[in-house]
Amino acid sequence: MGHRHSHDSGDSPQAPCGIDTPEHLAEHLAEVVRPSTVIVCVGNELCGDDGAGPAVARELAGSVPWEVCDAQTVPESFLMKIVNRRPASVVLVDGLDFAAPPGSVELFATDGLTGQGPSTHGPAPLAFLDVLAMVHPCPCAVLGIRPLRTEVGQGLSDEVRAGVDLVVSGFRLLAKAAS
């Protein structure tokens, strides 16, 4: 799933312009989402915008045909559950620090994320995807929402709340189109 589309800046896969509508997101998700896809939402609700992933999980639960895992900060705890489902693909939703304004949404191929990764809570999601690739190779993508603040005790910023709403709407549109 090479993510080079007309909205990319062309400079690098880490400097996108962002996905700006639910329809745009559904178009990109259609490249990787299959009937057996698992959506893994990662983040820490106690740390402001790092709670974007769990917020997406809460809103998607029961409203889309795909398995949704609210993995919080421990995606590795869901590894065997995911492997046992034998998904055709995995989409990891997380707060990511990428070159865009807060609340921006972008879909990244996992090969575009390296090193410690841009996750707001460290390398755990990338390490999780590496282990998943070893035990159940399948296409994976990371759907990032750019945070504004990640301090303990903060709620979601308005910008990230809008990003969460965009992500939820995009998945729901794709589900509607697939039914």
What are the defining features of this structure?
single chain, about 180 residues, alpha/beta, Rossmann fold, 5-stranded mixed sheet, 5 helices, 5 strands, about 15% strand, globular, disordered N terminus
Structure write-up:
The chain has helices spanning 22-29, 52-60, 79-85, 124-135, 158-178; strands at 38-42, 67-72, 90-95, 105-109, 140-145. It has 179 residues and is of the alpha/beta class. Strand 1 (38-42), helix 2 (52-60) and strand 2 form a beta-alpha-beta unit. Helix 1 packs across helix 5 and helix 2 (52-60) runs parallel beside helix 5.
> What profile does the largest beta sheet have?
5 strands, mixed
> So, CATH architecture?
3-Layer(aba) Sandwich
Shape: globular
Mean pLDDT reading? 85
Annotation, overall tally of beta strands: 5
> How are the strands ordered across the major sheet?
2-1-3-5-4
Question: What series of H and E elements makes up the topology?
Answer: HEHEHEEHEH
Number of domain units: 1
- So, the CATH homologous superfamily? HybD-like
What portion of residues is helical? 25-40%
Structural class: alpha/beta
DSSP helical segment count: 5
* Fraction of residues in β-strands: 15-25%
pLDDT < 50 stretches? 1-16
Question: Tell me, what is the CATH class?
Answer: Alpha Beta
Briefly note the CATH topology name.
Rossmann fold
Radius of gyration: 15 Å
Span between termini: 23 Å
